[in-house]
Amino acid sequence: MFDTLGLLRQEGKIGGFGWSTDHRERLAAYAPREGFVAVENDFNVFTPANELMAVAARENLVSFSRLPLAMGLLTGKYTPAMRLPTNDVRGGNAEWMVFFRDGAANPHYLSRLSAIRDLLTSGGRTLAQGALGWILAKSAIALPVPGFTRPEQVEDNLGALEKGPLPATVMAEIDAAENCRDCVGCGESGIRIGDNATNFDLSDVCRYRIFLSQASVAQLNTDGAADTLELKVRRSGFQIKE
Length: 242
Prior knowledge:
This protein is α/β, with parallel strands linked by helices. The protein has two domains: about 1-180, Alpha-Beta Barrel (TIM Barrel); about 180-240, no CATH class. It has helices at about 1-10, 25-30, 50-60, 105-120, 125-140, 150-165, 170-180, 225-235; strands at about 15-20, 35-40, 60-65, 100, 105, 140-145. The strands form two sheets. A four-stranded parallel β-sheet has the order 1-2-3-6. Helix 2 links the parallel strand 1 and strand 2 (about 35-40). It is globular and about 55 Å long.
């Protein structure tokens, strides 16, 4: 296929070509070809595709961001109780369908969204604008292609250009939250909150999130700083227990 595309380019029938792939090794093998100018790949705050994007940047490619809003999940309009109709592609259970399962938003990703919602909506952004702002800040070669079905969605998406990329400080907090989302301890303080933990001191908590193992049922010790702890707990998707 690429040989044919190369011949068409030599004949002046096309200016360049690209490929839709999420496989770093495959992209690295074919991107050096003359005329290979672009790649389409999954790229959003949940799917940073760091290795593939590094190859694309090295080869000076344009990356068309597929699923920049995670099939709509990053708009914030889906709740665990909402069910999608069977004629909606998200209503199925295709293997590649990670953001939605059994016709509903995947609780795993809803939890991750809850942890970074306040960061994405910083600066007066809507959630969708924040998600697109993350892409604009994350990579200079990324060109997000958000979907839409209504004019107001187009206006909202375009508003991301007015708001611009997310600030570096916000990006750092999102990275910290995402990088530590499966942790059961805090790298900054050395605290580990395991299955048998019952209390911990607010002063020892990582400033980004509070991490509990899945089996942990922890009693949070607020030590008179409930407001600050509430923010930390809310970002991490847990609830304060009285």
